[in-house]
Amino acid sequence: MVVHSGQPFTVVDANTNANADNAGSESQQYPNLVGNPHLGHPTILNWYNIAAFAQPAPSTFGNERRSQLVGPDLSEIDLSLGKNFSMREGIGLQFRIDGYNIFNHPSFGLPNTGVAFANGAPRSVSSITTTTIGPRQFQLNARISF
Q1: pLDDT tens digit sequence for 71-118
Q2: DSSP three-state, residue 22
């Protein structure tokens, strides 16, 4: 059984706005935080409040903090059942079935973190389009030991 809280993430400005030539190519531009980015009941179609972000003034960086928001939780339950048989002295047979994500519970990835702006207003979605764990799988094993 694996249960984790969500992974922190940072919303970034998808527009190129700041004069970041001296900051290096790995710098991220952050939007300005102007409201509460947390939603009361987030869904996979709308994970955070994009209206809480605004485009910073030209040649400036935004004030949003890193890792302010948290993605969806992760939970997975695996199960294994097996039986050992003694065939002869020194020879054994084992049958085992392994189940991964046996309740087929979806564990979603991080939402879209880039907020694009048009005329100063956010024009993006905060939807989740990936999963972190595959669907339910079963595996049957047989092993002879001597």
Answers
A1: 999 989 999 999 999 988 889 999 999 999 999 998 999 998 888 887
A2: helix
